[in-house]
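Lay summary

Proteins are chains of building blocks that fold into shapes. Our project writes down both the chain and a compact code for its shape. Here are two examples, one after the other.
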Amino acid sequence: MSEKPKALFTDVVGGMCPARLVLEHVTSRWGVLILIALLERSYRFSELRRRVGGVSEKMLTQTLQTLERDGFVLRVARPVIPPHVDYSLTALGEEAARQVSELARWTDSRVPEVEEARARYDEARREIATDPSQ
């Protein structure tokens, strides 16, 4: 009796898939942007906060800790005064960053189509709302 071959891809859409949590971390609002920024170079905390516009200090801290725990980000504290901490990507983090960067590039190239779809949707909704026969 032969063994069933192991699936190449886990069911992230299903309930309790371990990959699902990792996917959530990598594709979170700030996770994507932090990974893309760190693909450019390593950053100190304050530099990274300025680079990733709109992120609060608290969210940047939490997201960096999550990405570090998952093995995507390396945090290096230098024993100087004041403390100097650098954040960079691990090899795993660089691979993930390249993937989300491609998704971001694709998204950027499709913004006009998305805006057109939104306009059509909104127009159809307005027509339904103003048509008394509906």
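And here is the second example, written the same way.
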Amino acid sequence: MGLIRALFLIIHIIVVALLCGTLLNAYVPPKIFGYLNMLSLGFPVLMTVHFCLTLFWILTWKKRAIVFLLISLMFFNPVRRWINYTPDSGKEGSLKIISFNTKNHAYAKHKNEDELFKFMDKENADVVLFQENRFEGEHPGYLQYPIVALKTRHKLLKHGNIIETAANGNAFYADIEIHGKIIRFINVYLEPFMLEKSMVRPTADADLNTVKAKNLIRRLVPTFKLHQEQIVYIRKAVKESPYPVILTGDFNSVPNSWEYYHLSEGLQDAFVVAGTGSATSFHDYKFPIRIDYIFSSKEIKPKSYKVDRSVKLSDHFPVIATFDF
């Protein structure tokens, strides 16, 4: 039993060290050390192992349990970015926003187009922001850029492209007047990883798994570096905005990543402020993945946040948030 406890302790120390590595993503850019950003992908698993081992120390009446419980406080906010509880969650505000990666970006040729329009009519949101979507033909209230789009029933004052070096990602801003207030909406689709399930699915062949792991790293790290370049343009659009900002979209980045820390700088995560439950929005893989977000300036207070898992029109669920000025 003593040998098992010693092994568990070594594993626990390693897990805590890796968890601390995710906190360093706030400071270490991908172009300096891109491998560090990969730890954020494993954060849910690392936290689960940390929780189970801490529970083991508690049940075996070991004093080290106190140490690991105190260490857990370091990860309170990082955990809330994945799973959260807000006592007054559900009290809706006067401004309703939807962000939805519709995957196809050619819905006019797809039978789900009617279902998508029914969903939007039912929700009656002030602004709907799409990623990976392109509607064919003319649609009232729609603003279309490559890969990203927007629908609103309010007055559009100004808009423009943001990312100048996009390959497969894109972002734009739109200044919209709502209830006498002007808000700058920024719709983001950061560079995708272009992954397929076969690339991450393990096999019985150990050598093949090693090759897959190497290929996956070769795909992830360069994309992290592209994200760093694209975020420079997005942050510029946020900082130079003459109006309060709502920043939303598919960031192709999980919480506690370098992208999350720097895109959310000076803004509120609507899920952390007003959400309850899990924020997981991408459901194509059987692994908790949150890559869809809605952030806002301090002047715009999040009142509710929901991932609508009843809408199965894409490999993403739409995220819906309401706000008050």
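What can we say about the second shape? Residues 206-239 form the longest helix (34 residues).
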